[in-house]
Amino acid sequence: MNPSFQRRDVLRVAAAGAAVLCGAARAQGWPTKPVTMVVPFPAGGGTDAFARPISGQFSRLTNQSLIIDNRGGAGGTLGASVASKASADGYSLFMGAVHHAIAPSVYPKLDYDIEKDFVPLMLLANVPQVVVVNPRRVAATNIKELIALAKANPGKLNYGSAGAGTSHHLAGELFKIQTGTFITHIPYRGAGPALADLIAGNVDLMFDGLGSSAQYIKSGRIKALMVAGAKRNPAFPDVPCAAEVGLPDYTVTTWYGLWAPKRTPADVQPQIVAEMQKVLAADDIKAIWAQNGSEIPTLTGPAYGSFVNAEIKRWAAVVKASGAKIE
């Protein structure tokens, strides 16, 4: 055999072996450096209430930082746009929410597509919406009194939201449809600023996720009148559910999920999910989720993608019925 051909064959085999080993190492070794997670709302909102504990637990389990990059604005779509253009190397993640299933129906010119420009990884948390009021501004002590007050004073009550096209906004519109009331919508750049104004007494009420409202309900700074859905929440057993007070179709949940930019390596995606599942399985995380009124979800990969697709269709119908528009 020609020695030069033999050497070339040996080098070719060695190179192929090195590529295989490199791929295996990449799949088994994630993360080997800090990870950045875009959170498309300002600090202090519902997304942050779950993102911060995830970041801390992730760092403890992997010895790598999970850096939270808060990019608030435009109902969460600004941050989503930034995340869609991030490096698809497995070290750029996006923690979005139900708002990103609503956005395609209310924002006509998004420069990203949540289904085409991202890889769906997993659902992280799922909490019911809650109707909360500032007790110094709103005399109602239960939901029936709030409805009566709104009907007697159309347009005088107002509600803050995380921005036009968010679940907070649409939850308010759905409430108005089902109760025959008119309450003025005041959009903010995130749930955090809206909640701060509610606590300060600058707005009357919010249709908020329990994740961000929970601590303020418990401290008495705001009052919860109703949780959405057909059952009471274990974290707030004294707060009636919508079905109990004559609103059986008022079902709104705020969910938070994880995506990666499209073209993120296929062998890295399951590693991300596996590490995040370890995070969610930690006792500290379970306790925080329970305090925030959330369950620990199990949807991952294509099943999570199908869930998002169904939510996009569901909220499109709500947007059409409410006539909600960007303000």
Written description of the protein model:
44% of the residues are buried. The chain is globular and about 60 Å long. The protein is built from eleven helices and nine strands. It has helices spanning 3-29, 46-62, 77-84, 99-106, 143-152, 167-179, 191-200, 210-219, 269-281, 283-291, 301-322, and strands at residues 35-39, 66-70, 92-97, 118-133, 158-161, 184-187, 205-209, 223-227, 253-261. Strand 5, helix 6 (167-179) and strand 6 form a beta-alpha-beta unit. Helix 4 (99-106) packs across helix 11 (301-322) and helix 6 packs across helix 11. Helix content is 45%, strand content 18%. Strands 1, 2, 3, 4, 5, 6, 7, 8 and 9 form a nine-stranded mixed β-sheet that branches.
Largest sheet: 9 strands, mixed
Q: Span between N and C termini? A: 77 Å
Shape verdict: globular
**Rg from Cα:** 23 Å
Strand segment count: 9
Structural class: alpha/beta
Poorly predicted tracts of residues: 13-27
Number of helices: 11
- Average pLDDT taken over every residue: 90
Pattern of helices and strands: HEHEHEHEHEHEHEHEEHHH
Query: Helical proportion?
Result: 40-55%
> Strand percentage, roughly?
15-25%
How would you summarize the topology of this molecule?
Layout: H1 3-29, E1 35-39, H2 46-62, E2 66-70, H3 77-84, E3 92-97, H4 99-106, E4 118-133, H5 143-152, E5 158-161, H6 167-179, E6 184-187, H7 191-200, E7 205-209, H8 210-219, E8 223-227, E9 253-261, H9 269-281, H10 283-291, H11 301-322
Parallel strand pairs: 1-2, 1-3, 5-6, 5-7
Antiparallel strand pairs: 3-9, 4-7, 4-8, 4-9
Helix pairs in contact: 2-8, 2-9, 2-10, 4-11, 6-11
